[in-house]
Amino acid sequence: MKLGLAVLRISAAPPPTSAREGGGPLLLLFPSSRIFHCESSSLSLFSSRSPFRPLVARLATSFESSQRNSIHSGSNEDEEEEGDPYLTSSNPSASLLSLSEKPDRSLALLDEYELEELDPDRSTCHNHRSGYVAVLGRPNVGKSTLSNQMIGQKLSIVTEKPQTTRHRILGICSDPEYQMILYDTPGVIEKKMHMLDSMMMKNVRNAALNADCVIVVVDACKVPHKIDDVLEEGIGTLTDNLPILLVLNKKDLIKPGEIAKRLEWYQKFTNVDDVIPVSAKFGQGVDDVKDWILSKLPFGPAYYPKDIASEHPERFFVAEFVREKIFMQYRNEVPYACQVNVLNYISRPTSKDFIQVEIVVEKESQKIILIGKGGKALKVLATAARLDIEDFLQKKVFLEVEVKVKENWRQDEGLLRYYGYGGQIRAL
Ligand SMILES: Nc1nc2c(ncn2[C@@H]2O[C@H](COP(=O)(O)OP(=O)(O)OP(=O)(O)O)[C@@H](O)[C@H]2O)c(=O)[nH]1
């Protein structure tokens, strides 16, 4: 394969005032002699201090395709009219990253330019395993807690409320010997109240399409139950081909004798390959789960550079942190009626980064609750979110939060796709 050396800078909207501290031109090896040199940058994604350097090759492809789309739609009015109104060339941030495509392993191999792994012998990968794992289960069973533990970093927000996870979150756990790519998925629900629920469940299913093995998490505190609903919703007809592990989570909350009984029940009455009891919250049994996954992953090179933990951009996690705080601070229906969008993310080398966030709610009454008397509640929320975001980004930020009403956004397919529930998120 012919290699090309590229300097990649992908533009974000609006363009940052300048490159972020600690960033710099990024040298990449591409599997062609073509040179990418796109103006401006969102070097926040590639900052040497950030662990979240998304798979640049995919972003480049995504950027390239959005460029192609703009040119194409500009030359063909009919097609532009038929297209998604949110993704036209007038929306410069329409660079999309598909969450259902597996990246090309050979590209990931080349991306590891920084590492000695460019050693040509590595392509044989006799001892290296890599693959995808779908983490499925009903709401609130501890899927996100388990995924975070395995990755060793908080990528998915965790609250005591069910259905916190809305997106399929891809987390990458790497070691010199392996790379496991985990899809933390929204909890499987049978009753779909909104279009949002249906789209979330479709994303659960798509996670299994890529999977080399599946983990079904159940809550050890609950009376043992069949997991057919989870398998049907999450895997569909793929059941025969995929190794399945049942993780009996929250074992810290029940007596050892009870754990043994539950293990026996699940081994007897579910059609899974193995059952492992864990306490995801306290990290007990998590290594056993990892060992099981490793035994099921195929041999082959890594899909992603070894030093990244996710391919979601930083702005995705910023929005998730705000959403987590909403779940923690507000009650009843309000958190479920909220959608958080990052409108602006501007890196400023001489002052704090500027992040502008909107919280979309469905009703004026929800907006009033969110803001609180004299804006107090919103201020508490923004402060709590900012502290977590700063901790995550390892730098100070200026966070501006506004609340908007969009009636029935949970039923609006176009908006839902724009918000990233259609299996594609904005890359930058
Ligand atoms: N005691 C105990 N609590 C746990 C354990 N794992 C998760 N939890 C708690 O269970 C609640 C739900 O955990 P999550 O990880 O958000 O569950 P989830 O399955 O991802 O939830 P959804 O977003 O509804 O899909 C949180 O309050 C966690 O702290 C565990 O091993 N032991």
Automatic annotation (TrEMBL):
Region (G5): 278-280
Protein localization: Plastid, Chloroplast stroma, Chloroplast nucleoid
Primary location class: plastid
Residue numbers spanned by region G4: 249-252
Keywords for this protein: GTP-binding, Nucleotide-binding, RNA-binding
InterPro entries in UniProt: G_ERA_dom (IPR030388), GTP-bd (IPR006073), GTPase_Era-like (IPR005662), KH_dom-like_a/b (IPR015946), KH_dom_type_2 (IPR004044), KH_sf_prok-type (IPR009019), P-loop_NTPase (IPR027417), Small_GTP-bd (IPR005225)
Region annotation (G2) ranges: 163-167
UniProt superkingdom: Eukaryota
Region span, Disordered: 66-98
GO cellular component annotations of the record: chloroplast nucleoid
Limits of the KH type-2 domain: 330-407
GO biological process, one term: ribosomal small subunit assembly
Domain Era-type G: start-end pairs: 129-299
GO molecular function, one term: GTP binding
Region annotation G1: where it falls in the sequence: 137-144
Region described as G3: spans on this chain: 184-187
Record-stated family: Belongs to the TRAFAC class TrmE-Era-EngA-EngB-Septin-like GTPase superfamily. Era GTPase family.
HAMAP family to which the protein is assigned, alphabetical: GTPase_Era
Cited function: Nuclear genome-encoded probable GTPase involved in ribosome biogenesis in chloroplasts. Plays a role in 16S rRNA maturation in plastids and may contribute to the assembly of the small (30S) ribosomal subunit.
Protein name: Era-type G domain-containing protein
